[in-house]
Amino acid sequence: MRDFTYVLADDVASAGSLVHNDAVARAVQTPDDVAYVAGGTTQYDLMRDGVWSPGTLVDISRLPLADIEVSDDLLVVGAAVTMADLARHPSVVDLDVLRDSLLLAASPQLRTMATVGGNVLQRTRCRYFRDPTVTQCNKRVPGSGCAAVEGTARTHAVLGVDAGCIAVHASDLAVALVALDARVRTHGPHGGRTISVTQLHVRADEDPARDNTLVAGELITHLEIPLPDARSGYLKVRDRASYEFALTSAAVVARVEDGVLAHVAIGLGGVGSVPWRATRAEEVLRGQRASLALFEEAAAAELADAFTVPGTAFKPELARRTLVRQLRDVTEVTA
Amino acid sequence: MSRLSVDVTVNGEQHSVEVDTRRSLLDLLREDLALTGTQKGCDQGACGACTVHLDGQRRLSCLTMAVQADGREVTTIEGIGTPDDLHPVQQAFLDCDAFQCGACTAGQVMSAAALLDEEGWSTADDVRELMSGNLCRCGAYPRIVDAVLSARTAREA
Ligand SMILES: Cc1cc2nc3c(=O)[nH]c(=O)nc-3n(C[C@H](O)[C@H](O)[C@H](O)COP(=O)(O)OP(=O)(O)OC[C@H]3O[C@@H](n4cnc5c(N)ncnc54)[C@H](O)[C@@H]3O)c2cc1C
Ligand code: SF4
Ligand code: FES
Ligand code: FES
Question: CA–CA separation, A83 vs A216, rounded Å?
Fold first, then answer.
């Protein structure tokens, strides 16, 4: 692992205005060769593997960004809130899709360490990306090719990908967030801004070398999560019962009025190079009379253009079934 | 080489250790403080053998940077009981015969000891899910579940 300088951003005196935190201000203004670390469960891991080793690491885990506030129908969650703490917050305990996206992820120990900001920005688990001795990886070394396309690719993506990179975005939380129309609040070189989670990540078929649309040094300060007036749920399908990433997953937020889908929002996990908002499926469903046939039509539409390699050939069908089952469970429409 | 001084309380004892910024909490414990009860299984967050308590909560010491433990309290397997005065979870692991080779046991016990203080669980299924961050290659799982439930019962009695 490359040597690095560690800087703790803990200036609580100037906490009221995060902008004036010295360490953060430096990272924002001169972001070259600097990275943030929160829980470290992705960042420190990648540094030790020699995949991504910045010269300076700015620790944001002790910044006063660990509060959760509820106002009207909006949940505002500090970026340094841990997955465990968000999952047990009173407003989240009954919001099935959010709670389960957190509790079905990683392990109790990891959820105690990992922050929500770090979770949505976690980097792909592609084994070829995480092994610097592999020379072909367009995400790590732009233009070098993709070892996964010809390699072992069970956990890879089938949507938002092409032969240049099939890396999956493995966050469960982010899949729930896109279905909840959540946003991130950031602080960066040009001040503050708010970005929809659906606009936060970059598809591998657009630019494999770029994970997200944040500019260098831009810090996520909060998640804004609208609390829906709808039922919801998160279904995660994986190779073992727990402590495993998704093969496929579906986050569904829906409200049925008089048999008609008045509201429906869907996120798919395990299949996309980004947390996948299933807009095609939603178009099929919205305003229509809920039925099993309609759910199947919607799921088929979403997966119609899937890009598969031999290792991922099973995924479109598994993803379709995952989505149909979750639509049934959330709407309680079974025929 | 970048070095920093880390002030950390381990099992009630204060230490000031100068560490390479790259050091993990696991290596600080094992190499700098010679507390080798905490095990290194995978060293990448995938097995739970290195579980310790940081400010009372269970965490993986292999993925915790030593510098991030500055000013905090760590409890390791050496700090929760003694041979003459076992922690209730240790006693339950003995009573239920909940280990074979023992490689995972320190992590299992630390994880279970923290779990006893967590809320919202009671059944064997809950235990299986909430102990899923600790793998056991010997497959002692059924007895580990028994041990955790029996430690809970002992504590409630
Ligand atoms: C064994 C294992 C199993 C796992 N299983 C799952 C799973 O099933 N589901 C799942 O969703 N995840 C899973 N994860 C991933 C885990 O949830 C993430 O590693 C974790 O959420 C990242 O949070 P962190 O606070 O540790 O982030 P860090 O590792 O500290 O940071 C992650 C990245 O985000 C950047 N960053 C962090 N915070 C901010 C911020 N506020 N603003 C700007 N940049 C920031 C960092 O620079 C870094 O690049 C697993 C991880 C492991 C090791
Ligand atoms: S799938 Fe993407 S991250 Fe994995 S080897 Fe190919 S280019 Fe690299
Ligand atoms: S050694 Fe830490 S999780 Fe395996
Ligand atoms: S007792 Fe051998 S690994 Fe668990």
Answer: 25
Task: Tell me if A307 CB under 6 Å of ligand 2.
Answer: no
pLDDT in tens, B30-51: 999 999 999 999 999 999 999 9
Q: What mean pLDDT comes out for the span B122-130?
A: 98
Please judge whether B2 and A48 are an interchain contact, meaning their C-beta atoms are less than 8 angstroms apart.
no
* B54-82 per-position pLDDT tens digit: 999 999 999 999 999 999 999 999 999 99
Residue A189 pLDDT? 84
* CA nearest to A105 within chain B: B133
**Other C-beta atoms within 10 Å of A227: how many?**
16
A221 falls within a domain: no
Name the residue among B22, B65, B68 with its Cβ closest to that of A3. B22
The residue out of B59, B79, B99 marking a domain boundary is B79
CA A167 to centroid of ligand 2, rounded, Å: 5
Each residue's pLDDT tens digit, A308-327: 999 999 999 999 999 999 99
Atom of ligand 2 nearest to the CA of A136: 5
Cα A93-A322-A324 angle, rounded to 5 deg: 95
| Among A40, A60, A32, residue whose Cα is nearest residue B22 | A40
> Per the domain annotation, does A13 fall within a domain?
yes
- How many whole angstroms separate alpha carbon B96 and alpha carbon B154? 13
A146-174 pLDDT tens trace: 999 999 999 999 999 999 999 999 999 99
The CATH number assigned to the domain holding B150 equals: 1.10.150.120
> What is A57-77 written as a DSSP string?
EEE-TTSS---EEEETTEEEE
Q: What is the CATH number of the domain that holds A237?
A: 3.30.390.50
The CATH number given to whatever domain includes residue B47 is: 3.10.20.30
